[in-house]
Backbone:
């Protein structure tokens, strides 16, 4: 019996009813730290998804016209329910995803904070009265919920990625059909339970697990789904963008990253190391904003690398539920093999492994936190997302060289830089082709600011006032004939 047993829902939520797949099929979910089975979820497909879309479409009629104060109150209750259940939700998250418990608690808290933020922000979703060119007219710009929303989320932040979609959608007056990742479905299903517990009407929130192709296929094909919000890999995002064309859906895409972390000679090295550890090793390197490439200026290169090695070797690897553990297992063996492939590629091209480099003695999908120096642009990790606990360190001489190297990727999500120069800070703001830029900080995500990538890292924003815009349609109304 676990602490989280009350949050472990092994069924799907469609139109207010919890149930299994039509064909009775289920999918086993594994705890990546223990390698044991955590439970089963329904293996749903197109038929169940179409029923969820119908339920969301029916619910939209009332929900979209409901009192704003009713929606705001429900969102505040949902925030409180999340925080009241922070511990079991965090335990569940660690059990299915592997991240250390402290990080899981933080993820639940930031998810709840997004709910509160959008409950506040929707009260300021104002329209406009635009000056008309003639005296007999009045011009109004109003904002309206976009419609039924399809939400598809990844395994690395199974709770907060859903929060960033559900909260603005519900605040705006949209209804939702959500599909959590198959590796980590329970955190998403728990949102369904809490939404129901606090009183969201039936059909407003629907959550399905199962075949990605079938569920997403039905969502993308439906003319009733007016918006799709996706967080995941760039490859799948491109497929969804193509599929959205047939019904001209609005899309938000939070896709892959390849974050540079630039350390200049004038940096505060203590602060840079602290930021580097968070930006690289949070969630075992499996975040879209994780550092993929360290660029360190020649004057501080050796000192920075020595300190990074010391800090990396001090990290305790193990089951995320255990005290002091800061590195859990990777999500699956495919992730481990990708890191191994990148290490082999780098060492064959002159990269030097200065710590780690191997599967961890704990077995399973545990991997030694690793640093490779003497990195060069022809190595695989220069252009591909690592998504694992591997630091690649490149040396550079000039600011121009660093900015050019940082931008030499099709991705444009997060970038970090450490410097004391104000002038350089603004040059970095203008020069770095990234949607999120952290100066002297390795952890910059916050509900108040827009999160989202440039280039092939996606489109649309989550959080900030911009995060609500994606769920609202703008209408312009001209009222003429006012002279009579
Ligand atoms: P993924 O393989 O793209 O999966 C994401 C979601 O899409 C899952 O629910 C998955 O379902 C579903 N999916 C898979 N194939 C699909 C298809 N053909 N059609 C429709 N849906 C499909 O990504 P992931 O491995 O879970 O997550 C890691 C990636 O997400 C990384 O690239 C990371 O950078 C990115 N990410 C980006 C952000 C951001 O905010 N920019 C945040 C977090 C993660 P199944 O689980 O059932 O396969």
Residues:
């Amino acid at each position: 019996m676990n602490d989280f047993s009350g949050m472990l829902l092994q069924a799907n939520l469609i139109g207010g009813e919890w149930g299994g797949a039509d064909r009775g099929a289920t999918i086993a979910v594994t705890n990546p730290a223990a390698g044991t089975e955590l439970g089963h979820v329904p293996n749903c497909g197109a038929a169940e998804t179409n029923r969820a879309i119908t339920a969301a479409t029916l619910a939209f009629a009332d929900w979209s016209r409901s009192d704003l104060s009713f929606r705001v109150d429900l969102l505040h209750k949902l925030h409180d329910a999340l925080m009241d259940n922070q511990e079991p939700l965090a335990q569940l998250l660690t059990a299915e995803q592997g991240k250390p418990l402290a990080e899981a608690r933080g993820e639940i808290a930031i998810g709840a904070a997004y709910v509160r933020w959008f409950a506040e922000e929707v009260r300021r979703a104002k329209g406009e009265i635009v000056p008309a060119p003639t005296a007999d007219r009045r011009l109004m710009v109003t904002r309206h919920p976009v419609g039924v929303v399809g939400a598809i989320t990844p395994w690395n932040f199974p709770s907060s990625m859903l929060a960033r979609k559900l909260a603005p959608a519900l605040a705006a007056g949209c209804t939702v059909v959500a599909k959590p990742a198959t590796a980590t479905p329970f955190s998403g299903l728990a949102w369904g339970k809490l939404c129901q517990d606090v009183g969201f009407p039936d059909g407003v929130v629907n959550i399905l697990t199962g075949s990605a192709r079938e569920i997403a296929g039905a969502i993308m094909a439906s003319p009733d789904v007016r918006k799709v919000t996706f967080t995941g890999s760039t490859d799948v995002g491109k497929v969804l963008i193509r599929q959205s064309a047939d019904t001209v859906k609005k899309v938000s895409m939070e896709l892959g990253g390849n974050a540079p972390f630039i350390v200049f000679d004038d940096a505060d090295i203590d602060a840079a190391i602290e930021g580097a550890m968070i930006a690289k090793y949070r969630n075992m390197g499996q975040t879209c904003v994780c550092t993929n490439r360290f660029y360190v200026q020649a004057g501080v290169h050796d000192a920075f690398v020595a300190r990074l090695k010391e800090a990396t070797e001090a990290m305790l690897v193990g089951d995320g539920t255990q005290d002091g553990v800061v590195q859990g297992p990777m999500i699956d063996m495919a992730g481990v093999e990708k890191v191994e492939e990148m290490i082999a590629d780098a060492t064959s091209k002159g990269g030097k492994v200065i710590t780690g480099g191997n599967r961890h003695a704990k077995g399973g999908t545990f991997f030694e936190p690793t640093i490779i120096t003497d990195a060069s642009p022809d190595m695989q990790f220069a252009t591909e997302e690592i998504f694992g606990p591997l630091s690649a360190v490149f040396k550079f001489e000039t600011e121009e060289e660093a900015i050019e190297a940082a931008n030499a990727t099709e991705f444009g999500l997060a970038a970090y830089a450490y410097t004391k120069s104000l002038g350089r800070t603004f040059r970095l703001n203008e020069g770095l082709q990234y949607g999120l830029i952290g100066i002297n900080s390795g952890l910059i995500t916050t509900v108040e600011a827009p999160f989202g990538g440039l280039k092939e890292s996606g489109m649309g924003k989550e959080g900030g006032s911009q995060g609500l815009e994606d769920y609202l349609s703008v209408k312009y109304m001209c009222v003429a004939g006012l002279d009579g």
